[in-house]
């Protein structure tokens, strides 16, 4: 087990830059999740750490060792693949023993290690089966067992739950995280599913276009997104983005001037004037659907309901306000119905300001 | 606690990185180079030498030969009626063989594409000719055509194809059909197997959708089967045509090119020039012409294919 | 599965029967003449089966001719060629399947070119090259030549088999502590055994059947392979058809046996490569 330090890592394929200057420090025993849409570079980053691809520049350390120039077999990391990559012609026991056999361990010690891992994963009954006789969830566990048995410095997970159905995914999420906590092994987990990232990570690395957009705890990314990408990617239903302008007025002579967020002619709320305000006053305002309160049409901003999506837990309402679309999520059963008017209100602290062109958060 | 595995001690640095990069870059060559070197040594180098022979006087029996003669051999072959005859025969041989092999192979593949009891056994039996060595196939058919031991002369007479129960292979005008039939017998399985594999890769739901849309079997064949088969078949037919044009074994065995050079094709002509007259120079010149013709043919087919692809 | 009328199936089976008869008839005739005693050979020409059958021809062929020697030579040459070719082709096919590298297209192109030109073209140069090396009239010379001839096709065949194995299996093995070659040996190769068997079968058959180069390169009967020996045999015994056909049947046996085993994998193997043409 060891800390993983990534310094200034870059990767290009020919002229295409896939990863740009990634800096990342993962503590010993931490469960870090790399999350982002397809093509953001998260899998590439994982493969660079594993040694399955070569870096273009930069440095990767595990513990105190720089591992850039090492073959995968010398890096002492274990990987769980999306397809599990279990050796089809070997039994579960042989799959799990393979790495230990390569190291020249004695048969007894190998058996003991395999037995211990199998017990932990509750797959003892499957040891003599071949992979094709296993279900998806069972294969997942065997893949984990194969990784565990080596007691590596780090676990790498490459979207291991993508091939499972929704119910099974929920259960395996729990099992993987619990197992990792028990073992205490540093882990890097790649997924495109933000729910997996939020529920499993100690810290999340949100990636987009080869850049680590933000690194922080799930709460930090949720409450304090660093830019439009992170704000829109984390959280479900996704954050609303409204085109607005920031206007300064004195409400009354003698008062301090305040900054108002205006969407068209609707005043969404007041905010502290951000340091990086643009000359034309344009902002993009981010509002989480669950932070919008529903009122009677007369009190609050007037909006019209376009669509209702009940989710059981609550309802997602698709509204139209000042020509723009807004989603609201409420756990109460809404009073109004389709095509009817409803009033909304937002607290100032839930108005997140972003630069419309660069996407950076304005504070 | 299980025992600690052997610790991995090396510290990595930039020397390791460049060494590893070099090793990784060299890897594919280590896998492929042995084959490439052998092929170059045994096939490419002799090819170049062979091309050079075409321009030299090279006779095995005459140790003083080896002079450069320029285009002498080519002038010789231009005036050689046996050469032109062989060229004509090559076309007949190739076209007839390919059309019959492909056509009959396609029918066989279509028949085998349906599930029926005993299919595995039938498949084994109809594919068997392919396993027979070509020389044996040639001898076998030669014997079949031989009125002394074979039934075919009598059957051909009974069918009215031949006037008397002679050996088809002794008739200059029709002898080429003997090797052609042997070639077809031997070659149907190849096409049948390839076509069957291609047929089985067509997804079943396309046929179902067409059937629901009201398409009958002939329409389905024309609109679904043929277009799906076309791309793979184009390359296969191209390669096979070239291969058949070069395939001299059956002719050498069944007729030795006779009677009176009437069944010679270019590649068998080359062989008899090299093997019997031991005139390597002339043989190489004819071979060069054959190679040029095949390259032209291949390029024409590629161009045609590109034109069709562009049209779609 | 569609419903077809009775006429459809009647036609279907009729055509199949026609194909089966066409395929088997020559072989049947070969067998028939090989067991026909000499005295009945000319008289009973067209009967489906001789009134008296005999194993004499086989006995003479095996005991009194050089036949066993030719057979032995062919077995040696074909087996050695098959083994070497498959080993080299497996390595090359793996290289083509897993790696992108500079010159790959040149090498692939080179291999395609070798499939295109008439082999007779290099019969003379190869003779001239091998003679000074002492490799004419030798089985070794034939093995070298045959191996090279079969490598391109065998490599493409192995490549298609390797393409069917997912790359993450090797990656998992490499992370488990194996070098790429160890991963190739212990993980990929065991999974492609059917492909290896098919390739061995193909190359064996091709080497077993090759005639022209064997004819050209070997003039002594000590080094003759079966095709050459049989041809010489045929011209010597130009009227002893019984013996010739018996020799022919014996020539068939190894490849037929091989064929029965690999036949199942043929369509499978070609399906893997068929889509690529």
Distance between the termini of chain B: 66 Å
The assigned CATH architecture of chain B is Orthogonal Bundle
Derived from helix and strand composition plus strand pairing, the structural class of chain C reads mainly alpha
Number of DSSP-assigned strands of chain C: 0
CATH topology of the largest domain in chain C: MetI-like fold
The H-level CATH homologous superfamily of the largest domain in chain C, spelled out, is MetI-like
Low-confidence stretches of chain C: 272-277
CATH superfamily heading of chain B: MetI-like
Biggest sheet character of chain B: none
Radius of gyration of chain C (Å): 23 Å
Number of domains of chain B: 1
Question: Would you state the CATH class of the largest domain in chain C?
Answer: Mainly Alpha
- Strand content of chain B is under 5%
In percent, how helical is the residue content of chain C? over 70%
User: Taking Cα atoms only, what radius of gyration of chain B do you get, to the nearest Å?
Assistant: 27 Å
Question: What does the model show?
Answer:
The complex is a heterotrimer of chains A (363), B (312) and C (277). With 363 residues, chain A is α+β, with helices and mostly antiparallel strands. Chain A folds into two domains: 230 residues, P-loop containing nucleotide triphosphate hydrolases (Rossmann fold), CATH 3.40.50.300; 115 residues, OB fold (Dihydrolipoamide Acetyltransferase, E2P) (Beta Barrel). Chain A has eight helices and 20 strands. The two termini of chain A are 38 Å apart. With 312 residues, chain B is mainly α. Chain B has one domain: Orthogonal Bundle (MetI-like fold), CATH 1.10.3720.10. In chain B, 71% of the residues lie in helices and 0% in strands. Chain C is mainly alpha-helical and 277 residues long. Chain C is built from 13 helices and no strands. Classes of the chains: A alpha+beta (363), B mainly alpha (312), C mainly alpha (277). At the A-C interface, strand 6 and helix 2 of A face helix 8 and helix 9 of C.
């Amino acid at each position: 087990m060891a800390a993983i330090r990534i310094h200034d890592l870059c990767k290009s394929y020919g002229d295409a830059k896939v990863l740009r200057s990634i800096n990342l420090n993962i503590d010993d025993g931490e469960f870090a999740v790399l999350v982002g849409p397809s093509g953001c570079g998260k899998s590439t980053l994982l493969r660079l750490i594993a040694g399955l691809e070569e870096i273009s520049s930069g440095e990767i350390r595990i513990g105190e060792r720089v591992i850039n120039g090492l073959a995968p077999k010398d890096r002492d990391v274990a990987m769980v693949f999306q397809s599990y990559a279990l050796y089809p012609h070997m039994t579960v026991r042989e799959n799990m023993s393979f790495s230990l056999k390569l190291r020249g361990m004695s048969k007894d010690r190998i058996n003991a290690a395999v037995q211990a891992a199998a017990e932990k994963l509750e797959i003892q009954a499957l040891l003599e089966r071949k992979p094709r006789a296993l279900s998806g969830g069972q294969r997942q566990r065997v893949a984990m067992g194969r990784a565990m048995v080596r007691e590596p410095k780090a676990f790498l997970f490459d979207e291991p739950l993508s091939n499972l159905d929704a119910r099974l995914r929920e259960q395996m999420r729990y099992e993987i995280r619990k197992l990792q906590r028990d073992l205490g092994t540093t882990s890097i987990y790649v997924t495109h599913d933000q729910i997996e990232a939020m529920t499993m990570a100690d810290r999340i690395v949100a990636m987009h276009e080869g850049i680590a957009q933000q690194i922080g705890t799930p709460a930090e990314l949720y409450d304090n997104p660093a830019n439009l990408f992170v704000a829109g990617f984390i959280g479900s239903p996704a954050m609303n983005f409204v085109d607005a302008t920031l206007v300064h007025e004195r409400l009354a002579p003698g008062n301090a001037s305040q900054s108002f967020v205006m969407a068209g002619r609707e005043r969404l709320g007041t905010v502290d004037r951000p340091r990086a305000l643009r000359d034309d006053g344009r902002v993009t305002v981010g509002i989480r659907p669950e932070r919008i309160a529903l009122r009677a049409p007369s009190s609050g901003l007037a909006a019209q309901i376009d669509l209702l999506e009940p989710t059981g837990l609550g309802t997602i309402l698709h509204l139209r306000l000042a020509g723009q679309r807004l989603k609201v999520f409420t756990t109460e059963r809404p009073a109004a119905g389709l095509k009817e008017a409803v009033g909304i209100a937002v607290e100032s602290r839930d108005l997140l300001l972003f630069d419309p062109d660069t996407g950076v958060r304005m504070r | 606690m299980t025992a600690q595995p052997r610790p991995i001690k090396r510290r990595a640095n930039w020397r390791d990185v460049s060494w590893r990069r070099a090793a990784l870059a060299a890897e594919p060559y280590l896998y492929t180079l042995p084959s490439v070197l052998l092929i170059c040594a045994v096939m490419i180098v002799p090819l170049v030498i062979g091309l050079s022979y075409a321009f030299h006087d090279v006779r095995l029996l005459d140790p003083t030969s080896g002079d450069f003669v320029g285009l002498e051999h080519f002038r010789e072959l231009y005036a050689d009626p046996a050469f032109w005859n062989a060229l004509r025969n090559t076309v007949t041989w190739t076209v007839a063989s390919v059309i019959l092999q492909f056509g009959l192979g396609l029918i066989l593949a279509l028949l085998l594409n349906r599930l029926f009891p005993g299919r595995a056994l039938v498949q084994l039996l109809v594919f068997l000719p392919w396993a027979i060595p070509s020389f044996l196939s040639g001898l076998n058919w030669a014997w079949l055509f031989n009125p002394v031991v074979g039934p075919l002369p009598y059957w051909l007479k009974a069918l009215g194809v031949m006037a008397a129960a002679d050996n088809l292979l002794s008739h200059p005008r029709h002898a080429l059909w003997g090797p052609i039939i042997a070639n077809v017998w031997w070659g149907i399985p190849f096409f049948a197997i390839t076509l069957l594999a291609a047929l089985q890769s067509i997804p079943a739901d396309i046929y179902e959708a067409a059937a629901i849309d009201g398409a009958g079997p002939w329409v389905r064949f024309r609109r679904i089967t043929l277009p799906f088969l076309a791309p793979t078949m184009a390359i296969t037919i191209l390669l096979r045509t070239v291969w058949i044009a070069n395939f001299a074994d059956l002719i050498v065995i069944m007729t030795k090119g006779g009677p009176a050079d009437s069944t010679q094709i270019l590649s068998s002509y080359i062989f008899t020039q090299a093997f019997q007259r031991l005139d390597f120079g002339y043989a190489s010149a004819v071979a060069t012409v054959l190679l040029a013709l095949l390259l032209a043919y291949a390029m024409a087919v590629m161009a045609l294919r590109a034109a069709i692809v562009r049209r779609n | 599965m569609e419903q077809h009328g009775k006429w459809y199936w009647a036609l279907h089976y009729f055509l199949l029967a026609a194909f089966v008869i066409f395929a088997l008839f020559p072989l049947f005739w070969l067998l028939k003449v090989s067991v026909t005693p000499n005295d009945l050979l000319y008289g009973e020409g067209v009967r489906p089966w001789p009134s008296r059958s005999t194993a004499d021809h086989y006995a003479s062929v095996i005991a009194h001719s050089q036949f066993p020697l030719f057979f032995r030579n062919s077995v040696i040459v074909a087996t050695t060629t098959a083994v070497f070719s498959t080993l080299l082709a497996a390595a090359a096919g793996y290289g083509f399947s897993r790696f992108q590298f500079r010159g790959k297209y040149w090498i692939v192109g080179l291999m395609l070119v070798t499939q295109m030109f008439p082999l007779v073209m290099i019969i003379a140069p190869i003779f001239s090259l091998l003679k000074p090396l002492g490799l004419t009239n030798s089985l070794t010379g034939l093995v070298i030549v045959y191996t090279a001839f079969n490598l391109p096709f065998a490599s493409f065949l192995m490549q298609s088999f390797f393409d069917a194995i997912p790359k993450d299996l090797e990656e998992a093995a490499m992370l488990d502590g194996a070098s790429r070659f160890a991963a190739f040996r212990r993980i990929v190769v065991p999974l492609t055994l059917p492909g290896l068997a098919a390739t061995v079968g193909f190359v064996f058959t091709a080497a077993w059947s090759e005639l022209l180069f064997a004819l050209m390169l070997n003039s002594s009967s000590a080094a003759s392979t079966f095709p050459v020996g049989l041809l010489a045999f045929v011209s010597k015994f130009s009227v002893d058809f019984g013996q010739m056909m018996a020799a022919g049947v014996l020539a068939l046996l190894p490849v037929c046996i091989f064929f029965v085993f690999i036949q199942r994998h043929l369509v499978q193997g070609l399906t893997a490569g068929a889509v690529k043409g």
